[in-house]
Design brief:
The chain is an alpha+beta fold. The protein is 59% helix and 14% strand.
């Protein structure tokens, strides 16, 4: 099971992540500043200090001071900055002319950096403590005293050492460093927030919207939303939306069922029956099949309602539905058109076979008693048959033909089976014509009603 988090925890994690990232950036930037201070600022400060020391020593040497007095100058320079140490080492050229010192000789022979500086190499090294070796190069003025030297030779090395903490960074450098760090930190925070929120919030919402649009466009109530996210609130939206879809689908299926089926018997209604009939006409036209349509009307059903009540009448309709359904094939379509009127579609069934089915339904209904309160009754029905394409090639003609045949069976004494013929079609057309004439007369106010009282004699 996947673990999920809340937006509250997400924000807390983002803040902590941003803090850790900022600390990491600060550390990296601090290391960068420190290295820059060592490489740039230390070199400047150390060169300046070395130059000052050299000028002080050079000024004393111009006055002819002894080497003890020169050493005293170095001591005084070291007292100016307690954490800084300044030393001056004579080169072999100076030692040959003015005499050597044991300490200088040891340094020249054992300190590799001093040896390199004696060759004219300026050296800056150290992490916690900076050491700067400044070689004193002979120029034209130096030859006056140092007669054994040539321009470009090294007369000595000034060795300056001081802690990194003593480096003095300029205000401009500090401000620029702060601005760079602040801009970098701000960009990093916004980048973290953007990618985190985009991945955990924006993308699931876009995915959610896309799925809703797909459900709407395809009208697919069976589809469910599935979001890839670790956010609990988003998963709750997904869960509640899917539950809403479950309810909508349930209501949709119930509405679909109500629109297709009769609420009392569960049979198809007139609209759905006409859809099946339309489909069967197209199929039979394509494959040259015959089929039969039955129209059924229960005999004397009004008597049952008037005698036993409408609740009992509903029970009778359900029992009749069960009798008809149990004596039909799975491919046959049974529908209730309204009241006590039923219809049956027998696919790929010519008239002769359809008549056998109808006779079976008639006899089973007549011979099956129906329990009703404290009584048992038997029912009969009148059946009308219309065959495609003999009695009609469209819905209207087939329904009209089977309906006329059913009324023909009623007039023949009920509990019978009748088939529509051409005379019935002509009679129906005549009735429809007279009915249309009467409707127009009523609309044009051409009918004058008369009332005849009824007296109890």
């Amino acid at each position: 099971m996947k673990s999920h988090t809340t937006y509250k925890k997400l924000i807390a994690k983002t803040v902590i992540l941003s803090l850790l990232a900022s600390l990491a950036v600060a550390f990296i930037y601090g290391v960068f500043i420190k290295k820059r201070a060592i490489d740039d600022l230390a070199r400047v400060d150390a060169r300046k200090t070395s130059r000052l020391a050299f000028e002080a020593l050079y000024s004393a040497m111009e006055k002819g001071w002894s080497k003890e007095e020169l050493d005293a100058i170095i001591v005084r320079l070291n007292k100016v900055e307690p954490n800084m140490r300044i030393n001056a080492y004579r080169s072999p050229i100076v030692a040959a002319l003015f005499g050597d010192r044991e300490a200088d000789k040891n340094i020249r022979e054992h300190d590799s950096m001093v040896m390199s500086a004696m060759k004219g190499e300026e050296i800056l090294t150290g992490d916690d403590e900076i050491r700067y070796l400044y070689p004193i190069v002979v120029n034209q003025e130096c030859i006056t005293c140092h007669t054994n030297a040539h321009v470009g030779d090294i007369n000595g090395v000034i060795d300056v050492r001081f802690p990194v903490a003593n480096l003095k960074i300029s205000l401009t450098t500090m401000i620029n460093s702060f601005i760079i760090f602040f801009v970098t930190f701000t960009i990093m925070i916004f980048a973290i927030l953007y990618f985190r929120l985009n991945a955990l919030l924006v993308q699931p919402i876009n995915q959610f919207i896309g799925m809703i649009q797909e459900i709407i466009s395809k009208n697919d109530m069976a589809k469910r939303v599935s979001l890839k996210t670790k956010i609990l609130e988003v998963k709750n939206i997904e869960s509640h939306f899917n539950k809403m879809l479950d309810s909508i689908q349930d209501y949709y299926e119930k509405l679909q069922e109500l629109s297709d089926r009769d609420y009392l018997t569960g049979l198809y209604n007139r609209r759905k029956f006409e859809e099946f009939l339309t489909y069967e006409i197209k199929r039979s036209l394509r494959h040259h099949h015959q089929f039969t349509v039955l129209m059924i009307d229960l005999d004397n059903f009004k008597y049952i309602n008037d005698t036993y009540g409408h609740a009992s009448g509903d029970l009778v309709l359900k029992e009749v539905t069960s009798i008809f359904a149990s004596n039909l094939r799975n491919a046959d379509v049974l529908a209730r058109l309204g009241g006590d009127e039923f219809a049956v579609l027998l696919p790929e069934t010519p008239y002769e076979n359809g008549y056998a089915v109808v006779e079976k339904l008639r006899s089973r209904l007549e011979s099956t008693p129906i329990s009703l309160m404290f009584d048992q009754i038997t029912l009969t029905a009148s059946f009308g048959i219309a065959e495609y394409p003999e009695q009609g090639e469209n819905i209207e003609s087939l329904l009209t033909g089977s309906d006329l045949a059913m009324y023909k069976a009623k007039r023949a004494g009920k509990n019978t089976i009748a088939r529509a013929d051409q005379s019935d079609q002509e009679m129906a057309a005549e009735i429809q014509k007279k009915g249309e004439f009467l409707r127009r007369a009523i609309d044009d106010d051409c009918v004058e009603p008369f009332a005849q009282p009824i007296y109890n004699i």
